[in-house]
Design brief:
This protein is 39% helix and 21% strand. It is α+β, with helices and mostly antiparallel strands. Among the domains are: 66 residues, 3-Layer(aba) Sandwich (MutS, DNA mismatch repair protein, domain I); 57 residues, 5' to 3' exonuclease, C-terminal subdomain (DNA polymerase, domain 1, Orthogonal Bundle); 150 residues, 2-Layer Sandwich (Dna Ligase, domain 1). The strands form 3 sheets. A 5-stranded mixed β-sheet has the order 5-6-1-7-8. Helix 4 runs antiparallel to helix 5, helix 10 crosses helix 11 and helix 12 crosses helix 13. It starts with 5 loop residues before the first strand and ends in an 11-residue tail after the last helix. The structure holds magnesium ion (MG). The site of magnesium ion has 4 residues, from strand 1.
Length: 405
């Protein structure tokens, strides 16, 4: 089997770069620039320029604290529509190089170029990556860092190495050749590996495992003894740069659902609405994770006497934001409760009839606020995705979704 050729393309300081292009309040020229904050009433930093980061300003930091650290910074709101537009522009340029593009976040794209060797006349992957970078820069005025290798794991870590930082010589592209994965991995801490979150790190540190070097000293059996079969094997592979996950252009799924069986039956409408909000929130996050949009929202209700009922609504355009999914789900729950009023044992939200996000023919509504609460705007989507990203990086409590409504 020939080695896979996978790239991760990641826009550099995406929100700051886009804010500079959109240029509100002269952001284009501001060295100390912070994007985020009070304009969205969430009061956190979404992104800061390299110069502001030098003062200790970080993403997800409360804005008040950021401004104490860097009092001369210009704060501008996130230019949501421009971000969405730029994100699609980058995706479109990348799809010219291969159809197998998986959008991992608003500014991160995995590409699988396996099998394109002939098409590119045997061009080394790093050379293709440099052309890609140049095209994106020419056509979107944004700069990418691109990492490459035989897996998504290697490509992701290589993109971090490629990232140009002031005073460092990285030129924006770093490709790890086939066979060099294990050596490449030795420079990383376990915390650098995707999905090794704070809780896992703490467990690992109890066995003296903090870096990849710590892990490769042990055989698979020892890791399995400490961490269990699944996680022990997973870590053994990752530490050697092994990751077989494919790049998914669109994930196959028929429906995504979340439900909850209550410890005691619930009859209070406000309590049911609160559970519905959390279920809608999780189901829509699953859909966004899969890079999909859903057209049909279904609410399932099981009454105390075990009668199970459901109500669905199919929308004219597909949605993915928790705000709209919740708005539709509330209508459906109200309809079910009006038809039969009895304490509930179980409540569920399902999303189905998927289309792929950003796919051709998808209707994007660009108005910044929509009069119909069940019409999803581009802004809803971007806000939802950004909250996913911040939560992934900083934990589930970093931002409250409710506050974004
Ligand atoms: Mg980025």
């Amino acid at each position: 089997m020939t080695a896979r050729r996978i790239l991760l393309a990641d826009a550099d300081a995406f929100y700051v770069a886009v804010a500079r292009l959109a240029d509100p309040q002269g952001a284009g020229k501001a060295r100390l620039l912070i994007v985020g904050g009070s304009a969205e009433r969430r009061g956190v930093v979404m992104s800061a320029s390299y110069e502001a980061r030098a003062y200790g300003v970080r993403s997800a930091m409360p804005m008040a604290r950021a401004l104490r650290l860097c009092r001369d910074a210009l704060v501008v709101p996130v230019p949501w529509e421009t971000c969405a537009h730029k994100s699609r522009e980058i995706g479109a340029v990348l799809r010219r190089f291969t159809p197998v593009v998986e959008q991992a976040s608003s500014d991160e794209f995995y590409l699988d170029l396996s099998g394109t060797e002939q098409l590119y006349g045997g061009e080394p992957l790093a050379v293709t990556a440099r052309r890609m970078r140049e095209d994106v820069r020419n056509e979107t005025a944004l700069s990418l860092s691109i990492g490459g290798g035989t897996s998504k794991l290697i490509a992701k870590l290589a993109a971090g190495v490629a990232k140009p930082v002031p005073g460092c010589s990285a030129d924006g592209v770093h490709v790890v050749p086939p066979g060099a994965e294990a050596d490449f991995m030795l420079q990383f801490a376990l915390a650098d590996i995707p999905f090794v979150g704070p809780k896992f790190q703490e467990r690992l540190s109890r066995f003296g495992l903090r870096t990849v070097r710590d892990v490769v000293r042990h055989d698979r059996d020892a890791l399995v003894r400490w961490l269990g079969e699944r996680e022990g094997t997973w870590l053994y592979d990752r530490a050697r740069g092994i990751d077989r996950a494919p790049v998914h252009a669109v994930r196959e799924a028929k429906s995504v659902s979340r439900d909850e069986t209550f410890a005691t039956d619930l009859d209070d409408d406000a309590a049911l609405a609160a559970r519905l909000l959390s279920l809608a929130d999780r189901a829509s996050a699953d859909v966004r994770d899969a890079g999909l949009l859903a057209r049909t929202v279904t609410v399932k209700l099981r009454d105390a006497d075990f009668t199970t009922r459901q109500a669905s609504r199919t929308l004219r355009s597909a949605v993915e934001s928790d705000r709209v999914v919740y708005a539709v789900a509330r209508e459906l729950l109200a309809r079910l409760r009006a038809a039969r009023r009895m304490p509930a044992r179980l409540l569920g939200v399902a999303l189905s009839q998927f289309v792929s996000a950003g796919g051709d023919g998808q209707l994007f509504l660009l108005e910044s606020s929509s009069p119909d609460a069940t019409l999803e705007t581009e802004r809803d989507r971007i806000i939802s995705r950004m909250i996913d990203e911040v939560r992934e990086k900083f934990g589930p409590d970093a931002l409250s979704r409710g506050a974004a409504r």
